[in-house]
Amino acid sequence: MNKTRCTWPGTDPLYVAYHDTEWGVPVYDDAKLFEFLILETFQAGLSWITVLRKRENFRKAFDDFDYKKIAKYDEVKFDELIQNAGIIRNKLKIKATISNAIAFMEIQKEFGSFSNYIWGFTNGKPIKNNWNLLSEIPAVTKISETISKDLKKRGFKFVGPTVIYAHMQATGMVNDHLKECFRYHEV
């Protein structure tokens, strides 16, 4: 039986699997939130499928997205990453990943966890939207603008409101599945 789903993944098996199993599922685990944040920052200016296809390469290159290790990366590790053809080799984004790991841990110290911090913007629960068409889904919202400003104030880079809204969608802070999508009621 064919399921009705959002149209954006098309028929690409990787994209469909991501849509069907991950996108929009609420994430409260700091390690997973950091992974999505890093992937979203690398996606800035590119398509998500590009990043998704390189996800496992990113996982290997960035020590399984271990923010404690990433925060300690030195020039040798930076040079290794810039040479890694399996990832997006953007110097500024790689440097941002390192500084974002440090800022991430500062938030953990202040709030007990990054999850407490980020979910605090939605009172700890997902915002359930009611979209009928892909064209109705915004790229930016007031909340993503607020989070973006706050993260930048805390030293984060590549966290504009569009990146943050994509992060909110990916981690289930908002349910932006179309109403007719079978995942809409599941998440």
Features of this protein?
187 residues; mainly alpha; Endonuclease III, domain 1; two-stranded parallel ribbon; 11 helices; 2% strand; globular
Structural write-up:
There is one protein chain. This protein has 187 residues and is an all-alpha fold. The protein has one domain (13-186): Endonuclease III, domain 1. 55% of the residues lie in helices and 2% in strands. The chain is built from 11 helices and 2 strands. The chain has helices at 13-21, 30-43, 48-53, 55-61, 67-70, 75-83, 91-111, 114-119, 142-153, 161-170, 183-186, and strands spanning 127-128, 174-175. It has a two-stranded parallel ribbon with strand order 1-2. Helix 2 (30-43) packs antiparallel against helix 7 (91-111). The protein is globular and about 50 Å long. The two termini are 20 Å apart.
How many helical elements?
11
For the record, give the distance between the C-alpha atoms at the N and C termini, rounded to a whole number: 20 Å
What order do the helices and strands follow?
A: HHHHHHHHEHHEH
Shape: globular
Record the strand order, biggest sheet: 1-2
Oligomer: single chain
Biggest sheet descriptor:
2 strands, parallel
Low-confidence runs of at least 5 consecutive residues: none
